[in-house]
Amino acid sequence: MAPTRDLAASTATSEHNAGLPDPRSNFGRLLQMPAKGPATILAMDIAVPPTYYLQDAYPDHLFNVCNLNHKVELKAKYKSFCEKSGIRKRHMLLTEEVLKANPEICTSMAPSLETRMNMSVVEIPKLGQEAALKAIKTWGRPVSDITHVIFATTGSVNMPGADLVLSKLLGLKPTVRRVMVYMGACNGGTTVVRIAKDLAENNKGARVLAVVAESTILGSVPPNEDDIDELHAASVTADGGVALIIGSDPEPNERPLYEIQWAGETILPNTEQAIIRRVTIAGLHGRFRKHLVSFATSLPKFLTEVREVVGGPSWDEMFLAMHTGGSGLLNAVEASLNLPKDKLQATRTALSEYGNLQGASSLFALNEIRLRSEELGCKTTGEGWDYGYVLAFGPGITLEALYLKSCPR
What we know:
Strand content: 15-25%
CATH class of the largest domain: Alpha Beta
Helix content: 25-40%
Mean pLDDT: 89
Distance between the termini: 63 Å
Shape: globular
Structural class: alpha+beta
Number of domains: 2
Number of helices: 13
């Protein structure tokens, strides 16, 4: 005899699930089985605030709005940092009007966390939304085809998270599967791509929206002679967002940009205290500058080990996109890897035009490679090279790399 169902229990279950999505219609298309091919970047784009400041004029602007022009030596040091940064302009959400309306942000160690958070929880998702809409338009498929969202930021901490806020702004399905990455710092971009790769390759039909949006709202610190690390950071950091659509087994109407053939990371020994930032009553404060050279000097060994796993050409026969930490860092990487001067040109362009965008930086550099490949008429999306790396580093010190295969243009 076939088992019978308890009608009362069935009715109770139906009442309990009233108003919830029908699992058959919302989850059925995304099968819990692996895709056939590797994850690919199907579209990408960037967004920055409309207000920008030229780097050579920024010291005067900052010291004027913070009423610090009497600190002549400090201003001279800050100006020197700006001159050596390799930056032409930086886009900012903290405009002169915003700073004048919120003077606590311009006062060293003044309680300003609530002011900063009230701004960042609104503006960070908006930056992500702008970048996402541009990437989705290029992708050419409906927003309802997005199955997963990953959002990374170091510029905000909140519940509900920026991943949920972005999903609402874009009108994504309530069943979209979300991942939120807070405080990923300067390797946040490579981290979201690494996670997206795993999701795309292990969920047939998945289309992952990966977003990184960063702002100086939480971490912008007024010049202070007792905090040289933050003074240096204030000379290079800026605001911006980047979005990518990632999925395996491209459909005929999709045009892949890069195959993500490998993604991984390593932690440098005895560097746990090298990069530290904490949320305080006065915003995000920390130290990090002294040990950044270890990132550059560790790259040859790290990339050699990666090559033993993935094979492929040597790094001087590949395209390279990396975190735009500053001209000093890029110079150190060029010296450590013995690179020709033009190898990091796309990264230097991203640094020049947008500054240090923390987690979004390395992906801004990759976007520049995409654009340069088109402008120069290269045969591939990797400036003519078949393979390339996206490199970043963050707290740990963590070295993270993406190994990409470019696609024909």
